[in-house]
Structures are given as structure tokens and as C-alpha cells.
Design goal:
homodimer; TIM Barrel; 7 strands; 20% strand; globular; OMPdecase (chains A, B); RibuloseP-bd_barrel (chains A, B); decarboxylase (chains A, B)
Amino acid sequence: MKVGFPITLSLGFDGVREIIRDFPDYYWIADYKLADIPEVVQYILEGLERVGFDASIIHLFTGHRRYDVGMELIGVVAMSHPEAKFFRGNFEKLLDEAELLGVDGIVVGATRPEMIREARRRLPDVRIFSPGVGAQGAEPGSAIAAGADFEIVGRSILGSKNPRLEAMRVVEAQRGVIHGRS
Amino acid sequence: MKVGFPITLSLGFDGVREIIRDFPDYYWIADYKLADIPEVVQYILEGLERVGFDASIIHLFTGHRRYDVGMELIGVVAMSHPEAKFFRGNFEKLLDEAELLGVDGIVVGATRPEMIREARRRLPDVRIFSPGVGAQGAEPGSAIAAGADFEIVGRSILGSKNPRLEAMRVVEAQRGVIHGRS
């Protein structure tokens, strides 16, 4: 489960802590896309760990050092929105940074299947998370087909008249790809 | 006054809202360095405006559209820590982005006086905020001397044995530069 600013602004970090406590078996990702100086990132990660998160998304382009935390780190390498032009020119360097920092996972937008393929080739052991499925235009299963490990789906389910049906449709498409692959 | 993640993790957004209410005359900057997709940034900015902030710091490299908010926007163009290598190669493009987006201010690290001079030349009417004074190595007054409008000083005052004396020392140095300039 991915928690970001929108929910945190409504519930506060205390509210988020309670929800995480109620569902301890999920993998909780702090999606605040941290992009601060390393001293501050270290401090924030410690705080997010105390809130109960298992992993945190950080931006790689800001430049980092290795952090002293128990939680997993997921670095943003490519974003899915049309305005994200800077990531294209820096993609290879951001993959280098992911490798150098030894992150556990990377984020590559699902609308960029060619980038997912390249990231998978360059970093075979790093988990790839792909947002941008549904509302932003990528078809469910398409990022997994390109080599991602997880697709992140938000608005197309949350905004649906029948969220349960929509979630099942997404899972069905993903299963189709996974079974076709194995 | 600049409020970021560290304080927010301790006090929550409710706590921050109370402090802002107690000091309505200050200019309150939300320093969460937003770096998300435009739909989410728009949503977060609305939330931060409700908390009471006057301005918000956003990262420019993620790519944006124009936002529908009343608060001022301050875009990060260059960061002050030694690991911030990506900003150097993209500096001109980030200044273009600041211009395109019509931000009210930009952030240029105080440890990069040559970048402050270049930003001032390129964007004469945009306010320049320079963090990195004190703990990160830049001398008080040095960023203002290079063309910045405001220096952001945190740890060298907060971590001082005599914060009041340290703050006065900083202001004294800045006044020296400002008077020398006019």
C-alpha cells in the first residue's frame, strides 16, 4: 500500500500510523518522493520508520549518500506524466545513481515501457514499481509485460463507480501477462 | 519562516496550522520540496494553502503545469549539498522551467554563488532564496552579495549554544553586504 501527501494532509501522520498498525501484513510505502539534502532525508526516513512504513520513495536526481535506516528505499528513475521531460535526458545517470546508492527498488512510469525494459536490463535484481496505470493511460499488465515487478494503480480504481470490479479487471489483466510470461 | 518535514513529523499538520495561526504576520513557506505529478501537486498545494502557508517550495525538474492556487510558488533550481551533481548539468533548463512556469521565487544554494549570479541575470524579477548558509559552509551575507534576496539559515542558529547571538551575527553580516550594495 502506498501512502502519500494527499492522505497524510487529511489524516495526519498519527492517522497514517493507526492505519498501518491495523494492517500490519501489508507492505507500506511512504510516497512523499523525498528530494531534500541528505541530512534532512536521513532525518525524515527515521521519522517515517517510526510511523511504521516498510519502504520510502526518494527522488534520485537530488543526489544522496547511503542512509542509515532499516526501511527499504525505492528511487524514482522516470515519471509518467507528459511534463516529465527532464527524466529523459538524465535516465542513464539516474540508473547509475540507483546502482551506486544500492536502492531496493526503483520507480519507472508505466507510460514509458522502453524505459522499464532498459531499467530491467541494467538492474536485474532491483524491484521495479510502475505507477501510471489506468488514469494516466497505461493499460493494466503493460508495465509488467515490459519487465516491472509491480504496477501502481490508484485513481482508475478509486474513481470508479465499482472499485471492486475495476480492481478485479486490473488483476485479471496482470495475471494474464504473468501467466503468459512463465 | 520555513516549515518542512522534520517539524511536521513531530507536530503534524494540525500543529503546524496552530503555529501559523499564532504568528499571522510572518511569511510562511511550506518546504516539502514537492516533486510529484502535476495532479498530485495541485492537490497538495490546495491542502497546504488550507494549513495556512503563504508559499510552497516545489522542485522544477519533475516538470509542471501552471497551478490553480493563491499561494506563491518557489522553484528549486540548484541545491547546496555536495552530492547535488544533477543540478549542474540541468541548470539552464531549470531556469527556463522557472520562467515558463512563472514562479514567484527560486531556490539556489548559497554554496553556488556563480549560479546565484547567473540566475539573477536571467530572472531579474524573481526572488532568490538561498539555503546552505552556516552549517553547509556558505558565509552569512555571501549569497546576498551574489544577488540573492534571502538567505535561509537553520542549523547554525538552532544548533548554537547562544542562538540569539548567532542570529545577530548573521543579520550583522547580511546588513554589511546590503549597505555596501546600496
